[in-house]
Amino acid sequence: xxxxxxxxxxxxxxxxxxxxxxxxKLRQQILxxxxxxxxxxxxxxxxxxxxxxxxxxxxxxxDPKLPLPFMNLASQKNFVAVYSMVLYxxxxxMDWFTSEYTKQCKYxxxxxxxxxxxxxxxxxxxxxxxxxxxxxxxxxWIDIYEKAVKNRK
Length: 153
Prior knowledge:
Elements: H1 8-13, H2 17-33, E1 39-43, E2 46-51, E3 68-75, E4 80-84, H3 86-89, H4 91-104, E5 111-112, E6 115-118, H5 126-133, H6 138-152
Antiparallel strand pairs: 1-2, 2-3, 3-4, 4-6, 5-6
């Protein structure tokens, strides 16, 4: 569900009661572990963690007016979602994450395209998500992104 919130605080204030605590905890883990050069802002109606134009002036190739996405956090209708493009862009990060997830969580990993879904709020591996946020620097993400875009052409 895309929010119409214009700021992260407004987004947080509008969350349903049962989502406030898990989203706040996930957000704090992400903020505590974000690499330098990545900022929080609203992005695609979700909490977005992006490389701003001040760091990467080219922006996102799909819409250069937008900053380069890195990670997103959202309260969806039936789950909380963490979107991390790094998982699909860097195999060793995906391998690390899936291995650690199975060690830390008793429920099967529910993933889609760059999306990790959490339907059980009590089984969210908060620290693991924080660690995921720290796995790639802003410069490394820009390099990975530029190579991927170049290879698509």
